[in-house]
Amino acid sequence: MKARRIEITTFEKRLKGIRVKNRTAGIRILCFRGLIILSRSLGRVCEFTAAFLLFLLFATPLLFFCVIRKITNGRPVFIRKEIYWQNGKVRTIRVFNFDHRVLRNTFLFFHVLTCDLRLIGVSIKEYGKDARTAGDNFIYSDRPGIFSLWFLRNSSRTGHEGRMQVEMEYTFRHGFLSDVLILLRTLPAAVFHNPKAELPAEVTIMGVTFRNITMQEVIDLFIKDIVAGSRKKVFFVNPDCFNKTVKNKYYYEILRRGDYVLPDGIGVLLACKFNGTPLRENVNGTDMLPFLCRVAVENSFSIYLLGARPGVAEAMGGRLKKTYPGLKICGSHHGFIDSSEERGIVINEINAAGPDILLVAMGAPAQEIWIDRFASELNAKVIIGVGGLFDFYSGNMQRAPRWMREIGLEWLFRLLQEPRRMFLRYILGNPLFLWRSWTSRRHK
Ligand code: UDP
User: Fold this and answer.
1) Whose C-alpha lies nearest to ligand 1, atom 15?
2) With a 6 A CB cut-off, is 264 part of the ligand 1 pocket?
3) Which residues contact 117 (CB under 8 A, 6 or more apart)?
4) Is the CB of 13 under 6 A from ligand 1?
5) Which of 223, 229, 342, 384 has the highest CB neighbour number within 10 Å of its CB?
6) 333 to each of 26, 350, 356, how far by Cα in Å?
7) Which residue range forms the structural domain that includes residue 407?
8) Atom number of ligand 1 nearest to Cα 240
């Protein structure tokens, strides 16, 4: 009897506990929902206010100008455009009748006020001009925005994943705060924006010719080279490399002999823009590695890591294997090879492993000299000079966060990490490079 009573009381206690828990959980859910509704409404109010102010500030003077122009020479005030809209629909919007893209689009703020567009959303696609893709129905579940994550990444040439993946990332992750941050990052990134559709396949700066190509295209070419069994030398050139070529003619000649010379960094992006030959993407080694690892797993390609201080390449290999299960790291060795005997041993080791991809991280120009000198002796297919890459991927050094890369400030992050070593390279080297690239173009 006593035992039963105890059972009942514990049962009641439990029940009460559950009820209390449920009530608290219910209140929590209500509060959470309330917060979501509040933040959404707050978001909408902020969006409308911002669009209204931007319209007032930028569009009204232009509207006034266009109306006067219409009265005096009859040129229409607006151009109509059809865009892909919410839920697979097509909608007509208006922009100002100007040739300049930015001036033309200032009228879009009006369409935020009429609820046709969002201020920040997925990017606008023109009906009949831009191709519709499979994921469009999903990403256009909301109205498109004047500003977008894709516009931001495309401007700074860091959208290596491609448009759809970036739009998906936005659709899944966006919120009020992230939208505000996109808007803030867009302002500096827009400096690099280039609306030109036709871009040259190659660009030459200070006598060094490099490819104007996207990350995906380079990776596809590497796959073809590996499958065909050809040996290719791949070099990245950043502003510091260009500056080094001025004194080091041997390095300059090596760069000219590279099978793939690829532009690295925001400095090269700016120089190309100033010189009237804009870049398609900033194809740097650090951003390339995840793409390389993915294709290596998919195609069973092996990778050998040569370079950096003892232990760094091994640590990086271990980390990569965890991130990309199935990745074949067929060997690694540090990059401080002092004697010809040691060099012979390393070359034999690489040849025995026969990597499809050999990454050489000894810093420029040492790695380019090493690759150029020994490529013919190596049983490796794509040989890439990657600078300080191993230090980042081994966890020894932190890479700049993505938002800093998006606004072209990765160099500042590195400068703060190693102020002494990077001062000459960035604070003096970057402006010197821009000046040199500008004068070499004028000279040409
Ligand atoms: N390094 C090397 N062997 C050397 C000199 C340097 O392996 O004889 C490594 C060094 O440990 C570092 C990388 O090369 O990991 C150079 O990094 P840095 O940032 O200078 O290269 P960058 O990206 O500027 O070319």
Assistant:
1) 308
2) no
3) 93, 108, 111, 124, 143, 144, 145, 146
4) no
5) 384
6) 58, 9, 16
7) 202-443
8) 24
Element (H, E) at 202: strand 202-205
Confidence of residue 1 (pLDDT cuts 50, 70, 90): very low
Kindly report, residue by residue over 290-333, the tens digit of the pLDDT.
Answer: 999 999 999 999 999 999 999 999 999 999 999 999 999 999 99
CB 418 within 8 A of CB 391: no
Ligand 1 centroid to 308 CA: how many Å?
Answer: 6
Say whether both 213 and 306 belong to one domain. yes
Separation of CA 370 and ligand 1 centre (Å):
13
Question: What's the pLDDT score for residue 16?
Answer: 53
Q: How many CB atoms lie within 10 A of CB 299?
A: 11
Q: Does ligand 1 lie within 6 Å of residue 390's CB atom?
A: yes
What distance lies between CA 406 and its chain's CA centroid? Answer: 7
- The secondary element (H helix, E strand) that includes residue 109 is helix 108-113
Residues 214 and 143 in one domain: no
Euclidean distance between CA atoms 76 and 351, whole angstroms:
69
Residue 323: inside a domain, yes or no? yes
* Beta bridge partners of residue 361, listed in sequence order: 307
Nearest to 266 by CA among 413, 418, 440, 443: 413
Closest-lying ligand 1 atom to the alpha carbon of residue 421: 20
Digit-coded pLDDT (tens) for 72-120: 999 999 999 999 999 889 999 999 999 999 999 999 999 999 999 999 9
Helix 249-257 vs helix 366-374: crossing angle, to nearest 10: 60
Give yes or no: residues 135 and 211 share one domain.
no
Q: Is residue 37 part of a domain?
A: no
Does ligand 1 come within 6 angstroms of the Cβ of 368? no
Q: How far away, in angstroms, is 428 Cα from ligand 1 center?
A: 20
Clarify whether residues 153 and 207 are in a common domain.
no
Mean pLDDT of 237-250: 97
